[in-house]
């Protein structure tokens, strides 16, 4: 799942190239030691002070700074560097705009790839309360997509997108494909659900995915934050019956994270991303200057697929670990810690998929947790962070946010969507 890293030679992008740019070589010498400090913005006071201290002690102002042994951080992307999930935002955009480069036969195989034939979680039953499994739902999507493929002018037909939007098959295709993604995630483990959604880019090359990602990101950044619902048409129940699914809408950039990453880099500290979203999507968001994060493309570690002649193949990249859960730690160790000889000084995350990398490196001085009031292992780390608020030299920091606005709050406490009361920990 990893693609590219500043570790001598670029790994996993289908080509070899020197990844240490002249800009990276000279960053330390270009920084004046009395410049470029973190902005307060909406950081909690405790977190702001701790992050400033980290930068002062480990950046170019630090007495032990070595430009040949640059310190680095590793951050999650979705719901850590941004508000909401870019992979999921792009999925709905891809569906609504029929951005696919597969034949009906190819999509049919992708839909079923690696999915057990068990019934989905009972929360995913159809409108009549009947269980649904991959065979039932995939057969309906097959039929919808065949109709779309033969009629849409972006494929083999002559009808416009607006014409297609009026059809029951279009509405059924979007609702049932989004329902399928949701059901896979609710029923099976992350090592099944996370790669599955990336297979929908099969047939595209890197530039096509990046162009699609930019359009989808721009669209989602302009969407209202909220929850939307889709229900398949009553007149086209198919094999699976009528199904409904809800999903989060809207993306937001986080000014605090934009400023943090740029400030770190300007102080001679490298920034890497380790994300469970597809690599070309994360590259687009993290590296395109228009989004103001400015993380170098070669510093993006994320989910990766096989490529043949630069075209994406719906197969997980051979020899790579999925960049979720323990796979994040394995990836960081393989491409960074083992090559550099030391671990990240800061790791940032928000969910269970980030717990391993938040805990596994002795060199980590700060584990920054975006507070989503979650339970489980990330809840346990959040409790450690909450117990340490106001103390010196703590490892875990908890940063609050407001889910109604998609912004950080100047507090460790968060406000959940459609709520007004702030909370510190999961209840």
TrEMBL record:
<keyword id="KW-0718">Serine biosynthesis</keyword>
<dbReference type="GO" id="GO:0000287">
    <property type="term" value="F:magnesium ion binding"/>
</dbReference>
<keyword id="KW-0479">Metal-binding</keyword>
<comment type="similarity">
    <text>Belongs to the HAD-like hydrolase superfamily. SerB family.</text>
</comment>
<keyword id="KW-0460">Magnesium</keyword>
<keyword id="KW-0028">Amino-acid biosynthesis</keyword>
<keyword id="KW-0378">Hydrolase</keyword>
<dbReference type="GO" id="GO:0006564">
    <property type="term" value="P:L-serine biosynthetic process"/>
</dbReference>
<comment type="pathway">
    <text>Amino-acid biosynthesis; L-serine biosynthesis; L-serine from 3-phospho-D-glycerate: step 3/3.</text>
</comment>
<protein>
    <recommendedName>
        <fullName>phosphoserine phosphatase</fullName>
        <ecNumber>3.1.3.3</ecNumber>
    </recommendedName>
</protein>
<dbReference type="GO" id="GO:0036424">
    <property type="term" value="F:L-phosphoserine phosphatase activity"/>
</dbReference>
<dbReference type="InterPro" id="IPR036412">
    <property type="entry name" value="HAD-like_sf"/>
</dbReference>
<dbReference type="GO" id="GO:0005737">
    <property type="term" value="C:cytoplasm"/>
</dbReference>
<dbReference type="InterPro" id="IPR050582">
    <property type="entry name" value="HAD-like_SerB"/>
</dbReference>
<dbReference type="InterPro" id="IPR023214">
    <property type="entry name" value="HAD_sf"/>
</dbReference>
């Amino acid at each position: 799942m990893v693609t590219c890293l500043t570790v001598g030679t670029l790994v996993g992008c289908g080509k070899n190239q020197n990844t240490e740019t002249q800009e990276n070589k000279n960053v330390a010498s270009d920084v004046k030691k009395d410049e470029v400090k973190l902005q307060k913005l909406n950081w909690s006071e405790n977190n702001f002070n701790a992050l400033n201290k980290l930068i002062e002690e480990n950046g170019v102002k630090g007495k032990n700074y070595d430009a040949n042994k640059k310190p680095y951080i590793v951050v999650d992307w979705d719901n850590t560097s941004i508000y909401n999930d870019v992979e999921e935002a792009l999925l709905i955009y891809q569906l609504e705009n029929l951005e696919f480069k597969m034949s009906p036969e190819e999509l049919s195989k992708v839909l079923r790839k690696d999915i057990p034939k068990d019934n989905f979680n009972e929360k995913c039953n159809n409108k009549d309360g009947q269980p649904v499994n991959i065979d039932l739902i995939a057969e309906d999507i097959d039929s919808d997509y065949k109709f779309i493929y033969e009629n849409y002018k972006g494929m083999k037909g002559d009808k416009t997108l607006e014409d297609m939007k009026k059809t029951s098959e279009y509405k059924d295709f979007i609702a049932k494909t989004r329902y399928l993604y949701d059901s896979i995630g609710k029923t099976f483990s992350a090592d099944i659900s996370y790669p599955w959604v990336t297979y929908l880019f099969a047939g595209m090359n890197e530039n096509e995915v990046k162009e699609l990602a930019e359009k989808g990101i721009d669209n989602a950044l302009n969407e209202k934050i909220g929850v939307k619902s889709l229900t398949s048409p009553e007149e086209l129940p198919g094999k699976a019956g009528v199904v409904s699914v809800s999903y989060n809408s809207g993306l937001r950039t986080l000014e605090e994270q934009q400023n943090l990453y740029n400030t770190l880099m300007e102080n001679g500290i490298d920034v890497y991303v380790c994300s469970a979203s597809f690599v070309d999507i994360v590259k687009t968001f993290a590296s395109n200057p228009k989004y103001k994060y400015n993380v170098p493309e070669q510093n993006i570690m994320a989910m990766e697929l096989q490529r043949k002649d630069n075209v994406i193949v719906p197969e997980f990249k051979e020899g790579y670990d999925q960049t979720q859960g323990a796979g994040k730690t394995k990836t960081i160790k393989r491409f960074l810690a083992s090559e550099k000889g030391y671990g990240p000084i800061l790791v940032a995350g928000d969910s269970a998929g980030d717990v391993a990398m938040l805990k596994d490196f002795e060199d980590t001085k700060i584990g920054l947790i975006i507070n989503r009031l979650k339970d489980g292992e990330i809840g346990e780390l959040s409790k450690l962070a909450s117990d340490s608020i106001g103390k010196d030299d703590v490892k875990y920091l908890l940063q609050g946010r407001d889910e109604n606005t998609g912004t950080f709050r100047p507090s460790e406490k968060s406000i959940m969507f459609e709520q007004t009361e702030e909370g510190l920990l999961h209840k």
